């Protein structure tokens, strides 16, 4: 069998440094949720309320305009994306914290425009969340009131639950710890599993109507699963509706949105120029740190190589000296052994001659 030489190099791991609270809270960060959520400190968020994108949406991500690629190309990749989001949400959520996700089953439309079934988004997201450690705490059906702008809202049986007027709120909880707010009283109609309210409203972004939460629905969610001064997070912030309601009802909110077309809707929440200047300073400091680290690693490698050469030289000289000493010791031992053998033979001959002389005298 031929011998294979395997060269093992140094493995370097990249770890994200947690961001400070002053930088996170009260702002919407124009970043990718998958990478930005790794920088959020663990056990930081008390409540997550979000409406994730649907499998039919096209979201591009990349470091530059030429490198931007869609985050998913089919339904399986969409589920993988949602699985990563749920896993990261579990890390940043406190024990006893909640995650409320709004979703609905999306129709599968063929080339002719006919509906050939539905993607089981509600069931798949529930299974993904449970697989990552979440516990299904509640499921609420939001029945949207009829909007004049919609032409066809009601579907006939058996597709009533998949109609446009229905939406699901999946409520997940981390661990069995119960959190109670001081002086808080729940209203009886909040405890129903079917809400017939104006839960959603539309906002125009680049000439398109984007569905977002209404203030009434966000207020109900806050009343049920959060306390004052809690940290509220939205990984798909959009127009920033949740941050507005959180600021109004004394919650500490922040969000992430990858699409920069929503930035015109954030002007009433915070100063975008200050956030951009802070991010530029962070980039500069990060580049300086990386340059210093690269220089240190190169110097360290050179010093390590030189030290290894010196150590090899010292070990070789020590080995030579030790071998010389061993040879000299062996030679001296051989000489001593030869001397001792000659002396022993002389003594034996003398004894033999004395015995022979004594025997001759006795015979005479």
Short description:
The chain has 364 residues and is α/β, with parallel strands linked by helices. It has seven helices and 14 strands. The chain has a domain at 21-270: Vaccinia Virus protein VP39 (Rossmann fold), CATH 3.40.50.
Detailed description of the structure:
The structure is a single chain. By secondary structure, the chain is of the alpha/beta class. The protein has a domain at 21-270: Rossmann fold, CATH 3.40.50. Helices cover 41% and strands 21% of the residues. It has helices spanning 21-24, 33-36, 75-92, 121-131, 215-225, 241-248, 272-363, and strands at 28-29, 45-50, 60-61, 69-70, 93-103, 106-109, 115-119, 135-144, 166-173, 194-197, 200-205, 208-213, 231-234, 252-256. An eight-stranded mixed sheet has the order 1-14-13-2-5-9-8-10, sandwiched between helices. Strands 3-4 form a two-stranded antiparallel ribbon. Strands 6-7 form a two-stranded antiparallel ribbon. Strand 3 and strand 4 form a beta hairpin. Helix 3 (75-92) crosses helix 4 (121-131) and helix 5 (215-225) packs across helix 6 (241-248). The termini are far apart.
The strand count comes to 14
> What is the third-level CATH name, the topology of the domain at 21-270?
Rossmann fold
What level of helicity do the residues show?
A: 40-55%
Sheet of most strands: 8 strands, mixed
CATH level-4 homologous superfamily of the domain at 21-270: Vaccinia Virus protein VP39
Order of helices and strands: HEHEEEHEEEHEEEEEHEHEH
User: From the coordinates shown, what is the CATH architecture of the domain at 21-270?
Assistant: 3-Layer(aba) Sandwich
Strand content: 15-25%
Number of alpha- plus pi-helical segments: 7
């Amino acid at each position: 069998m031929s011998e294979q030489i395997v060269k093992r190099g140094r493995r370097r791991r990249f770890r994200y440094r947690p961001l400070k609270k002053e930088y996170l809270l009260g702002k919407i960060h124009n970043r990718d949720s998958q990478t930005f959520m790794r920088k959020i400190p663990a056990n930081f968020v008390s409540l997550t309320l979000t409406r994730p994108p649907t499998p039919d949406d096209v979201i591009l991500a990349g470091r530059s305009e030429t490198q931007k690629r869609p985050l998913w190309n089919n339904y399986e990749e969409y589920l993988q994306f949602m699985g990563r989001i749920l896993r990261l949400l579990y890390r940043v959520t406190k024990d006893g914290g909640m995650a409320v996700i709004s979703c609905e089953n999306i129709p599968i439309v063929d080339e002719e425009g006919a509906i050939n079934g539905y993607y089981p988004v509600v069931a798949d997201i529930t299974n993904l969340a449970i697989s990552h450690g979440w516990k299904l705490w509640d499921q609420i059906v939001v029945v949207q009131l009829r909007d004049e702008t919609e032409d066809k809202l009601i579907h006939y049986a058996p597709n009533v639950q998949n109609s446009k007027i229905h939406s699901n709120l999946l409520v997940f909880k981390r661990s069995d710890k119960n959190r109670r707010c001081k002086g808080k009283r729940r209203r009886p109609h909040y405890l129903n599993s079917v809400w017939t309210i104006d839960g959603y409203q539309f906002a125009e972004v680049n000439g398109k109507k984007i569905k977002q939460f209404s203030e009434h629905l966000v207020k109900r969610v806050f009343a049920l699963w959060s306390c004052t001064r809690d940290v509220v997070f939205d990984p798909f912030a959009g127009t920033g509706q949740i941050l507005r309601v959180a600021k109004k009802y004394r919650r500490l909110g922040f969000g992430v949105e990858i699409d920069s077309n929503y930035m015109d809707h954030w002007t009433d929440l915070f100063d975008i120029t200050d956030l951009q200047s802070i991010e530029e300073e962070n980039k500069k400091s990060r580049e300086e740190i990386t340059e210093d680290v690269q220089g240190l690693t190169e110097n360290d490698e050179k010093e390590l190589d030189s030290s290894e050469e010196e150590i090899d030289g010292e070990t070789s000289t020590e080995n030579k000296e030790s071998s010389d000493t061993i040879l000299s010791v062996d030679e001296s031992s051989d000489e001593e052994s030869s001397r001792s053998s000659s002396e022993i033979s002389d003594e034996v001959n003398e004894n033999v001659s004395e015995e022979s002389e004594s025997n001759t005298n006795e015979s005479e």
